[in-house]
């Protein structure tokens, strides 16, 4: 990307904050969003994408919840990067989340940077970007915001809620906060609480952003700058946790760039270094640094059991939702043990649950990739749920 | 630490580069050190500490090789921080590395910042600190430098060479480069090559340092500044990899600082965040940022098999050294599988080797901690080796 292209991409990303290219629902002073922290947000807005057609009885809607640095552009090319949607393997005509049968919705999360209110949105009180004056948001708040969008779309009950990683946390929160509105739930590579190690990784990323002098106490947008270097370091560190040792080994091993022997320098001498640097650089073109702080913080604060007297099963008591919990063998960020805790709690709550641990060396990122067993599992679960729900092909 | 104390600690750390409080051997133009890269270093110097007494036939010397951010202050209080030596659990009268029996040597590694030539040392050609003009050094170079020190001390054969992590890499290199000079070798929590994932973690740390504008292309010392924030971020990230999920969970869990509920802010709200920040801040008081680049790079380039046609066993062919390889169950940075590769190669080379995998939840850092099974294993191995070597109590 040339400097000009970068500047253009940034302008686009910046514009997406207040004037997104996605449809937006604006909630005014009469429709505030009360946050878990006690703060109240008004006005606020929610940007989203939809695919497929809502059927006559409004029973075929699937809400996809996106992960940390994802957004609503699930199955269309991204307005900033021009890249394909992040879940095109899963969403589309004839795919498991079949747009010929289902009405698919995905909203940018609260705190994000693609049109839903976040720290780069304009603070109505000052006319300037919110920055760190935006109240801290939680997974619970993200879900409440989505529920307001679903109300707006006139949908009472979602046929399914699905998502991986932070998206999976939202799925669990949906099933807990609005059990009667979720027919089926698919938390993938998720956890019911963020572990100490994951909080630690999150903190390193935030410190990397805040250590960059261009962060300017969170007021970089007013200054016309961005903490690009700090955010790139944060992304590089996080990216390692999304993969697995086996995946890195088979993908890069100890291979050098453009040579067969060490270069004895501090440039990217190994292929894995070059790959990581690229991950960092391409990320900062599309993502807002303050949003990174907010969404990682939301994950840190997620602890569904803590909200229910320390007993996770209580979060799902009496639930009629059908759950399909999916984990990946090589995922060390959200390991299978975390999914087992969810399954155990669902069993204790006498909920309907199936559990699939998928064998793969692709690590946490497997939920985003073309993993045949994942596709088959999601398709099978949704087909059975659709039958149980009496769903027909969308007219 | 107050600002004044910090400045004082920094001055001390800076002074240690050229005028260390440890004994130093200075090698002049007539005694250059030829590096693996082809570069030649002259003059150069090596700072070290010793404990105990060398016996009459000079057969009771044990060389300890320190880890990435360690130094020669194994069993005395640190001249900069005032803290106890980093291996006082293992080294001292009556301890496994018994200073009543053995003559213990530990040298600051080449590229380090506690008196051995490193990037903060004065470049004789310019009279200024080397910075990134110092040639890149390797584990092989570190070991060659130590061999020159051992020559200087008049020791032909070391009774043992021992070390954990990067120290363990040096142990393996010693046994390969100088098999006739090593009677017994103790590589702990080590590997014969740095994995792709570990190179990736190293690169994130280096990028964090280099992203700090105070790094100034490596010339911060001339400018009277230091890339403290970048180095602290690097240390925080690395520190997570030294522990284990289980250790972080039992030590901190999701406990908050000074309260029982979330504070909804970006300060250190969780105990694990406060702990990590402390690790970052205390590290920058004693360690040089450029040294961090050099020593992490040395680990990246370590690949003992590659130096022997891709066959690790060839690195140890005909070895008479007795090996004791030790790993820890919860170490995910240098997992047991890496130690097994070493053991396999030693077996293929028909070398004498015992292997102990120690059950602990303390992660990679277990080699530095008071782990009873580690102490017992090292004591047993050294006692048996001493008997085989015909060693008596030092006179």
Task: Describe the structure using short key phrases.
homodimer, alpha/beta, Rossmann fold, two-stranded antiparallel sheet, 12 strands, globular
Please explain how this structure is put together:
The structure is a homodimer of 395-residue chains. Chain A has a single domain (3-193, 304-389), classed as Rossmann fold (3-Layer(aba) Sandwich). The first copy, chain A, has helices at 3-18, 139-152, 166-177, 196-211, 220-223, 228-242, 245-251, 271-284, 289-301, 336-348, 372-389; strands at 24-27, 33-34, 40-41, 44-51, 61-65, 91-92, 97-98, 103-107, 158-164, 182-188, 322-328, 352-358. Chain A starts with a helix and ends in a 6-residue tail after the last helix. Chain A has 395 residues and is of the alpha/beta class. An eight-stranded mixed sheet of chain A has the order 1-4-8-5-9-10-11-12, with helices on both faces. In chain A, strands 2-3 form a two-stranded antiparallel ribbon. The first copy, chain A, is globular, with a radius of gyration of 21 Å. The relative contact order of chain A is 0.14.
Count the beta strands of chain A. Answer: 12
Low-confidence stretches of chain A: none
Shape of chain A: globular
- The CATH superfamily label of chain A reads Alpha/Beta hydrolase fold, catalytic domain
Q: How large is the count of helical segments of chain A?
A: 11
Biggest sheet of chain A, in brief? 8 strands, mixed
What is the assembly state of the chains in this entry? homodimer
Cα radius of gyration of chain A in angstroms = 21 Å
Report the average pLDDT across residues of chain A.
Answer: 95
> Would you give the CATH topology of chain A?
Rossmann fold
H and E order of chain A: HEEEEEEEEHEHEHHHHHHEHEH
């Amino acid at each position: 990307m040339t400097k000009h292209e970068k500047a253009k991409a940034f302008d686009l990303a910046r514009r997406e904050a207040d004037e997104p290219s996605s449809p937006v629902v604006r909630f005014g002073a009469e429709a505030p969003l009360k946050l878990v922290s006690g703060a109240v947000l008004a006005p606020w807005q929610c940007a989203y994408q939809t695919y497929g057609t809502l059927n006559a009885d409004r029973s075929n809607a699937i809400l996809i919840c996106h992960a940390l640095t994802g957004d609503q552009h699930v199955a269309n090319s991204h307005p900033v990067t021009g890249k394909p949607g992040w879940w095109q393997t899963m969403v589309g005509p004839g795919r498991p989340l079949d747009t010929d049968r289902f009405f698919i919705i995905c909203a940018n999360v609260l705190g994000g940077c693609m049109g839903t209110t976040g720290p780069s949105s304009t603070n109505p009180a000052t006319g300037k970007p919110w920055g760190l004056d935006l109240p801290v948001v939680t997974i619970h708040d993200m879900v409440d915001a989505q529920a307001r969008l679903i109300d707006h779309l006139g949908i009472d009950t979602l046929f399914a809620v699905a998502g991986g990683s932070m998206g999976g946390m939202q799925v669990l929160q949906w099933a807990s906060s609005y059990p009667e509105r979720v027919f089926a739930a698919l938390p993938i590579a998720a956890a019911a609480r963020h572990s100490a190690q994951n909080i630690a990784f999150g903190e390193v990323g935030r410190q990397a952003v805040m250590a960059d002098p261009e962060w300017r106490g969170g007021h970089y947008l007013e200054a016309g700058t961005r903490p690009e270097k700090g955010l790139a370091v944060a992304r590089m560190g996080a990216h390692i946790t999304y993969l697995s040792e086996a995946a890195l080994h088979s993908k890069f091993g100890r291979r050098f760039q453009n040579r067969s022997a060490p270069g004895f320098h501090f440039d990217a001498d190994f292929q894995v270094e070059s790959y990581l640097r690229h991950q960092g650089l391409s990320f900062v073109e599309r993502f807002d640094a303050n949003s990174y702080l907010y969404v990682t913080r939301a994950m840190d604060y997620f602890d569904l059991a803590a909200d229910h007297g320390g007993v996770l099963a209580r979060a799902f008591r009496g639930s009629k939702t059908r759950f399909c919990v999916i984990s990946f063998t090589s995922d060390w960020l959200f390991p299978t043990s975390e999914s087992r805790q969810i399954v155990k709690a669902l069993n204790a709550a006498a909920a309907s649950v199936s559990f699939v641990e998928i064998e793969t060396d692709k690590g946490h990122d497997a939920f985003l990739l073309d993993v045949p067993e994942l596709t088959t599992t999601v398709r099978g679960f949704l087909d059975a749920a659709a039958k149980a729900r009496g769903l027909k092909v969308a007219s």
